[in-house]
Write a structure and sequence with these properties.
Number of domains: 2
Bound molecules: nicotinamide-adenine-dinucleotide
Helix content: 40-55%
Distance between the termini: 53 Å
Structural class: alpha/beta
Strand order of the largest sheet: 3-2-1-4-5-6-7
CATH architecture of the largest domain: 3-Layer(aba) Sandwich
Length: 304
């Protein structure tokens, strides 16, 4: 059982979605929470949830583009909650636009919040951790988009690839202080930010089916991994990127009508009505047929 009792965690973007899920998960493992969000009322709502569940929490409005505000946030953690052991740089936004169409303003906003905001958050909280000299845990929220090229989301992808790399660099820089730094790459998580991607009604069902594990991710899924990375059990883990996507990345794309997606769905349905042995026999037969077809194709195309 992971135990974060006595630890103080700062979570940015804690008023919604993944940040809220992480704050609640860390609190249920025993950590005291400083919930930060650009919308102060949302941060306060998350802090209230923690308190109503019996935990300790405070809230602060902060824009992660504001260096002075983040330095103040780190100071608040120490003054109001008595320390700063864990920081989760989670706040993020999504601005669409291709290379041909994206405005400079949208580009700047995307990079400022998702990339510079993570830098400023980790710098402010990291300096406080070094001052306190008790080590620490830094968790940066990247994305599956850090590794998948998504047309129309270039700035978002670049920001997340940047976060993923910065976590590795900072793991090297902060290791001498006993501070670990890791990133998490969520897949499709059921939050307001991803609502457009997920769709509604049939589209939502199709999106769920495209995920090998058969469902969207939930903020708790990311919260559970953040708890582990923040725990003593993960003291030797640093510089890692943790993809949490239900298997989506290796399924080979988002298209729900792809053969891979249909295969996944067919197997999932078969599992409801067949024994394990029957499922094994079925997939063995399908595999043999697929290999025969592939061999015929190879011969027809003159391939080795
Ligand atoms: N939902 C997904 O599928 C998904 C997938 C991969 C990565 N992510 C990443 O996870 C993080 C959280 O996303 P989410 O899906 O929970 O989104 P969300 O929109 O539900 O929550 C984001 C929160 O961040 C806050 N925020 C926005 N700009 C801010 C700023 N400048 N300063 C402080 N707070 C700010 C918002 O007010 C909001 O409460 C983001 O970094 C996002 O890129 C999300």
């Amino acid at each position: 059982m992971l135990d974060l009792t006595g630890k103080v965690a700062v979570v940015t973007g804690a008023g919604s979605g993944i940040g809220r899920g992480i704050a609640l998960a860390l609190a249920s493992a025993g950590a005291d929470i400083l919930a930060a969000d650009i919308v102060g009322a949302r941060a306060e709502a998350t802090a209230r949830e923690v308190r109503e569940a019996g935990g300790a929490a405070a809230a602060q409005a902060v824009d992660v583009r504001d260096r002075a505000g983040l330095i103040d946030l780190a100071a608040t953690a120490v003054e109001q909650l008595g320390g700063l052991d864990i920081v989760v740089a989670n706040a993020g936004i999504g601005r669409g636009g291709t290379v041909l169409t994206m405005s400079e303003e949208d580009w700047n906003t995307q990079i400022d919040v998702n990339l510079k905001g993570v830098f400023l958050t980790v710098q402010a909280c990291g300096r406080e951790m070094v001052r306190r000299n008790r080590g620490g845990r830094v968790i940066a929220i990247a994305s599956l988009a850090a590794e998948r090229a998504s047309p129309g989301l270039g700035a978002y992808c670049a920001s997340k690839a940047g976060v993923r790399m910065l976590a590795r660099v900072w793991a090297q820089e902060l290791a001498p202080y006993g501070i670990t730094v890791n990133s998490i790459g969520p897949g499709i998580i059921d939050t307001p930010l991803a609502a457009g991607l997920i769709g509604e009604g049939d589209d939502r069902v199709q999106t769920e089916r495209a995920v090998p594990l058969g469902r969207l991710g939930y903020p708790e899924d990311i919260g559970n991994v953040a708890c582990w990375l923040a725990s003593d059990e993960a003291e030797y883990v640093t510089g890692t990127y943790n993809l949490i996507d239900g298997g989506l990345a290796d399924r080979g794309g988002f298209g729900t009508n792809s053969p891979q997606a249909q295969q996944v769905q067919m197997i999932r349905e078969a599992r409801q009505r067949m024994s394990g042995d029957q499922v094994l026999a079925m997939i063995d037969q399908q595999s043999a047929e697929a290999m025969k077809f592939a061999n015929e194709q190879r011969v027809a195309r003159g391939l080795q």
